[in-house]
Design brief:
This protein has about 350 residues and is an alpha/beta fold. The protein is built from 14 helices and 12 strands. The strands form 2 sheets. A 6-stranded parallel β-sheet has the order 2-1-3-4-5-6, sandwiched between helices. The protein has a 6-stranded parallel β-sheet with strand order 9-8-7-10-11-12, sandwiched between helices. Helix 1 packs across helix 14 and helix 4 runs parallel beside helix 5.
Length: about 350
């Protein structure tokens, strides 16, 4: 059977990153809706430059028959424009951009400019672009990265029961779920928590410590240096059951990111009626509603501490925010609906 769609992804589709989880769910839902989807998982380091990654992208394109449609995750595509240029004439290539590569935290000016130029060149070989949020579509325009048609296909959200919270008498539980990388800002969260020794709380940092081992080690050291070893757990990457338990027993969800292209984990928290403390970085203000969240400037440990302190000190205000989160969650699209929108976007411009 000929594939309706070839989906090209960086690394294994089963990786527990936001981008990979989005890709995997969309592939599953499109198949359920009758699409024939072939997935091409690429070896190598992304966004590169990386010889192995570029060779893998070239081989994936070469395996796709003429006139076929290839949907390529932006992380796999943006750092390697040459394979895109070579195959643009015989394939319809659609880029799936979660966020611009140059908006990653911690880049020096030279690396940022290199990524802007590389992603701009790669997108120039694409027929069209799909982003995972309207904010990312706007960002592409601001950076002058693409001048053709751009559609938006936001993620879906699975329905979930409301969180029950900590056991009676236990301290309020703060949960942060994100890979330990500079963009996610866990170092800022630890600095904020160090300002709240007078409050009762416990915090779990759940997420890969291998994506950026140097940063992860720095966060772990900051926990020790702040005297928070008994109050902050650096749990590493966890299985889905452990994550479900952490969310179910949480009091607050915290995501101190510098930038998010959407923030799927935020809507997962909202689906459980959890109040959110996060930042104004990227698409976050459009992802979480004001009554359910306190948003502070990225990188501002003092403002983050103030926001956490306010809700730790006021269970009633926290409960009202939880109600707003639960109400908003019922207005979110499920994954079949989200995949239907992605499918419509893929069919929109032949």
């Amino acid at each position: 059977m000929t594939a309706d769609l070839h989906v090209v992804v960086p690394g294994a589709l089963r990786r527990r990153t936001g981008g990979s989880l989005y890709d995997a769910r969309m592939v599953a839902e499109l198949r359920a809706q009758g699409w024939c989807v072939q997935v091409h998982e690429l070896a190598g380091a992304f966004p590169g430059p990386d010889d192995e990654a570029e060779a893998a992208l070239e081989a994936a394109f070469a395996a796709v028959p003429d006139s076929s449609h290839a949907l390529v995750d932006g992380l796999a595509l943006g750092g390697h424009p040459q394979p895109v240029t070579r195959h643009a004439g015989r394939l319809r290539i659609t880029a799936l951009v979660h966020h611009p590569l140059a908006d990653e935290t911690g880049l020096d000016s030279a690396e940022r400019e290199r990524l802007l130029a590389s992603e701009r060149a790669a997108l120039a070989g694409c027929h069209d672009v799909i982003t995972t949020s309207a904010a990312t579509r706007t960002r592409l325009d601001e950076l002058g990265l693409f001048h053709g048609p751009v559609a938006v296909a936001e993620p879906g959200t699975d329905p979930a029961p409301p969180a029950t919270g900590p056991a009676p008498g236990a301290a309020p539980s703060l949960v942060c779920i994100a890979s330990l990388t500079p963009r996610k800002g866990q170092d800022v969260l630890v600095a904020a928590l160090a300002r709240l020794p007078h409050r009762d709380w416990h915090c779990q940092l759940i997420g890969s410590t291998t994506a950026d081992p140097t940063f992860a080690a720095r966060v772990a050291s900051a926990v020790v240096d702040a005297g928070l070893s008994e109050r902050v757990t650096v749990a590493g990457e966890c299985e889905s059951g452990t994550i479900e338990t952490a969310l179910n027993t949480a009091s607050l969800f915290v995501l101190p990111s510098y930038y998010e292209g959407y923030g799927m984990v935020l809507t997962e928290a909202l689906a459980r009626g959890l109040p959110v403390v996060s930042t104004t970085g990227g698409a976050i203000p459009a992802t979480v509603p004001a009554p359910a969240a306190q948003l502070v400037p990225p990188g501002d440990a003092g403002a983050l501490a103030t926001a956490l302190d306010a809700w730790l000190a006021d269970p009633q205000a926290r409960a009202e925010a939880a109600g707003a989160a639960w109400a908003h969650a019922h207005r979110l699209s499920d994954w079949p609906t989200a995949a239907g929108r992605l499918g419509a976007a893929l069919k929109a411009t032949p």
